[in-house]
Design goal:
This protein is an all-alpha fold. The protein contains six helices and no strands. The radius of gyration is 17 Å and the shape is elongated.
């Protein structure tokens, strides 16, 4: 398979991360169509199950989003990171997906 050019991959990853972050935090173009002004806490309260974890369990997402942000910033601003084989051939467009 043909590897994408590093700059196109970096831009695509940055756009995908931005859209995902906006949607996740309720500010994206599709957020209001599904949420109807409800947050995770109100939805969890409405549909309680025996397997719903405590709210603190969801704090892992802060680390995940920070890690993704660090990766996006690194590949945008660092030529070394942008052209690293792990990024170009390993991650490719899977981050966008």
């Amino acid at each position: 398979t043909r590897c994408p050019t590093p700059i196109i991959l970096s831009i695509a990853n940055a756009l995908a991360y931005t859209l995902n972050s906006l949607e996740t935090f309720g500010c994206g173009p599709f957020s209001h169509a599904f949420s109807s002004n409800q947050d995770n806490a109100s939805i969890s309260q409405k549909y309680q199950t025996i397997i719903t974890p405590h709210g603190i369990a969801f704090s892992i997402w802060a680390l995940i989003f920070l890690g993704e942000a660090a990766c996006v910033v690194a590949v945008i601003f660092s030529e070394r990171c942008r052209t690293h084989p792990l990024m170009v051939e390993g991650v490719t467009y899977w981050f966008v997906a």
